[in-house]
Each structure stands twice: as C-alpha cells, then as structure tokens.
User: Fold ABC transporter ATP-binding protein from Rhodococcus coprophilus.
Amino acid sequence: MSAVAVTGLRRSFGGNTVLDGIDFDVAEGEFVSVIGPSGSGKSTLFGLIAGLDTPDAGAVTVGGAPAAPGRAALMPQKDLLFPWRTVLDNCTLGLEVQGTPRRRARDRARQLFPAFGLAGFEQARPSELSGGMRQRAALARTVLQGRDVLLLDEPFGALDSLTRTEMQLWLQEVRMRDRWTVLMITHDVREAVLLSDRVLVLSARPATIRHEVRVPLDRPRSLRTLTEPAFVALERELVSVLHEDRGFTVTDPTRSARIDSPPTS
Ligand SMILES: Nc1ncnc2c1ncn2[C@@H]1O[C@H](COP(=O)(O)OP(=O)(O)OP(=O)(O)O)[C@@H](O)[C@H]1O
Assistant:
C-alpha cells in the first residue's frame, strides 16, 4: 500500500487553476522531493495532503485512508515557534493538541533533544536559538506527532548555505534511523537530489507533474556525493527541465542550481 496516493488532483482559487490533474504515489519509507517554479502550487498540494484543504476534483489518501487533519504531519514554511514558550514546550505543542498530557508530552520531547542537537536548550526561548536549531526544533515538533508521513515545506529555506548543508546531512542521518516517509518541498535542486529517493518536478501553474527522476545513489550520502558524476548528471537534468519551462536552455547547472525566481504571474 502507498503511504501517499494522489490521483487526478485539481484545485482552483476563484478562476485561478493552480493544480491541474496531479498524480503520484509515495511508497512507505520513501523520501520524495517536490520542486517547481515559485507559485506553481507546491504548498497548495501539501495543504491537500495534510487534509487542511479540499480538492475540486481527484483524491488524496494517506496510509490508504482519505487525507484528513492528523494523518500526515506538516512542517510549514515558517517555523512558527511561539516566542513566549520554551523550546521544550514548543516541541510538545502538536502532542498537546492531540490530547497528550503535558508531562508525558514533555518526556517524549526530551528524549528527542539529543539527536536533534537541542540538549541543554529545553528551557531556552526560541529567540536564543540559531536558525538551524529553530528548524530542528520545528522538525522535532513535527516528528513528535508520530504520524506516518512528514510533509516538510522548505524546511531549510531560511538558512545560510553552510548551515543548510549541515542540516541536510543531519536530516538524512536521523531519518535513516527511523525510516520516516517524507515529502519535501524545496527550491534547491542540489538539496532535492542529495536527500531524495525520487524528485517530482511541477510545471508552472496550472501545475501538472512535468518530470520525475529516481535518485539511485548509495546512502549515506555525503559532501563527496555532490561531486559524483551521477549526482551532477541528475542535477543537470532537473535544472534543465526547470529552466526549459521558462524558455531557457541550461549549459552549466552548477551556476544556476537554485530556482527561486519570482512568480510567473
Ligand atoms: N487560499 C488561497 N486563496 C487564494 N489563492 C491561493 C490560496 N492558496 C494559494 N493560492 C494561490 O495558489 C497559487 C500557488 O500558491 P502556492 O503557495 O501553493 O505555490 P508554491 O509553489 O508553494 O509557491 P512558493 O514556491 O513561492 O512557496 C498562488 O497563485 C497563490 O496565490
């Protein structure tokens, strides 16, 4: 059974068709990235998978049942940590919303802190954390909800490139331990290839799945992976597909691996 199955998904807002027939499956334990032009509907797609929005047509199942709040855990683009709560109590929020008593929620959160590089910061406020630590806290909150599927919407978008690379390798490590099923939105082609088993490329709006690549590189992947010919070839393929959509032909993907260009309309 697929962890996530998306069939014929359509979503419009007013007269603006955003998703125009999206079909894909995610297997249990798979890491799939979704890339595509800004405004193509990636966050809209995640809202539908998270059960926070309803499609105009088509269907989404998570673990074989129709998408509904609480079936997949969504980490939104902004970390949304509450400044007045301690880091520990920010991490327990999802559990508390589910009805877990605060004490038990705190015990469970505390157990994650060492692996998430947050040990010793339980009583700190979010403002005392670095950008990478904030993202790890937001991810801890998402993971703690104990869902079968994690939806990460640009989890590292706000980080500098060094921290970002460290976080990517860290995410790979913690995820290999627990085999989460992950769907991740990113604007960074290199990040998508480094972390994923498969990368889906959305077209510009109205979005369809324009392209898909499998990433058959061994794990764990490391900084060295970034320069392997197979890695570079996949990166080049994805960058070319993305830029073709915008009428460009890419000859040197290493100079244009990011795609955070302005919305097309
Ligand atoms: N609730 C809503 N009401 C009206 N329009 C919406 C709503 N949600 C999304 N949209 C529109 O849908 C389109 C796609 O937005 P979405 O945020 O899904 O794109 P995205 O690919 O995630 O963008 P980015 O990469 O910039 O984060 C945009 O034109 C946006 O204005």
Summary: Residues 13, 18, 36, 38-44 surround adenosine-5'-triphosphate (CB under 6 Å). The longest strand covers residues 16-26. The beta strands are 4-13, 16-26, 31-35, 57-62, 65-66, 72-75, 149-153, 181-185, 198-202, 209-214. The domain at 1-71+148-265 is CATH 3.40.50.300 (Rossmann fold).
